[in-house]
């Protein structure tokens, strides 16, 4: 198996960039899709954001410094693309971010790509009540099992702040689920 450094080298070399990028897609497409999907909730929106994410990765791979792992860098791009997408969508619909979140949760029940049961739907609704940063931290820790150290790189914040956000998020989710 090729190392990450080898993949980065092939991604930044003219003759090998296309094949290396196909490999990168194969390696990270599904994980990034689900990361994005947890932020935007809709399958169609997640597909659009994923495509934008990989376009940005392809265009900017030469700017990757190697300070973090490649997947951390891509998760950061995917996170930023997701948040930007939501901001643009709420602006386009002329509603607040909170109203957009509520609308998206309501649409989740009708989404043919959502195959969760009642408990999963309640959990998604509980997560949707959290402030955006807590949503991100909860999803990355609870669903993706991303270490705080890696999360700190992706979200550009301290591990302590992330632990506090996760703790607050779990308390709020618990309270929400107990009240329903």
Automatic annotation (TrEMBL):
Q: Which keywords does UniProt give here?
A: Sigma factor, Transcription, Transcription regulation
> What InterPro entries does this protein's entry cite?
RNA_pol_sigma-70-like, RNA_pol_sigma-70_dom, RNA_pol_sigma70_r2, RNA_pol_sigma70_r4_t2, RNA_pol_sigma_r2, RNA_pol_sigma_r3/r4-like, WH-like_DNA-bd_sf
Q: Entry's Pfam families?
A: Sigma70_r2, Sigma70_r4_2
Biological process GO terms, please?
A: DNA-templated transcription initiation
Q: Which residues form the RNA polymerase sigma factor 70 region 4 type domain?
A: 121-173
Q: Which part of the chain is the RNA polymerase sigma-70 region domain?
A: 26-91
* NCBIfam families linked to this entry: sigma70-ECF
Question: What is this protein's record name?
Answer: RNA polymerase sigma factor
